[in-house]
Amino acid sequence: MKITRRAALLALAAAPAAAHHGFMQWDYENPVFIEGWVSKELDGFPHWEIWVRVEGKDWEVDVGDQFVLEKAGLSQDGKEFRMRREIRVEGYRPVDKSVLRILPRRIIFDGGDEAYDIVVEG
Predict the structure, then answer these.
(1) CATH code of the domain containing 91
(2) pLDDT tens sequence across 62-93
(3) Which pLDDT band, with edges at 50, 70 and 90, does 3 fall under?
(4) Residue 97: helix, strand or coil by DSSP?
(5) Residue 78's domain spans which residues?
(6) Residue 57's beta-bridge partner residues?
(7) pLDDT digits (tens, 9 = 90+) for 18-54
C-alpha cells in the first residue's frame, strides 16, 4: 500500500485533534464525586475545561461548550468558575483510574449555595 504525501500530511494534521479528543471509556456504573477548588480554567473553543485541586492533585473537568453552560443555568462566559472557588463535581471517572478526569453531571459551588445539572455528551 502506497501512502501519498498528501495522505501523510493529512494524518499528521489530524494527530493533535485525535490526541485531545481521543476515545475515553467512562465508568457509568460507579458515579463518583470530587471536592476541592478551581485551580485553573480554560475557556477555549470548542468547550470549557476546568481543573479542580483535590488533595494536592488537579482533576480535569470538561464542562462543555457555552450552550451546555447556558442550558445548565450557568453564564456562557463561565464566570462561575473563578479561581479558588470551592466546588463539588459529581459525575463519572474513566475506566482507566490512572486518569484524573471526571465527566460532570452536577456541579455544586460553595458548599451547596449553587447547584447546576450538566448534560455533556460522553
Answers:
(1) 2.40.50.140
(2) 888 888 888 999 887 888 988 999 999 999 99
(3) low
(4) coil
(5) 25-117
(6) 54
(7) 444 457 899 999 999 999 999 998 876 677 889 999 9
Question: Does residue 62 form part of some domain?
Answer: yes
Retrieve residue 89's grid coordinates: 463535581
**Type of residue at 80:** E
Q: How far apart are CA 118 and CA 48, in angstroms?
A: 12
Measuring CA to CA, how many Å separate 57 from each of 82, 86, 93? 18, 15, 15
Whether 77 is covered by a domain: the verdict is yes
Contacts of 62 (CB under 8 A, 6+ apart): 47, 48, 49, 101, 103, 104, 120
Q: How many domains are contained in the chain?
A: 1
84 inside domain: yes
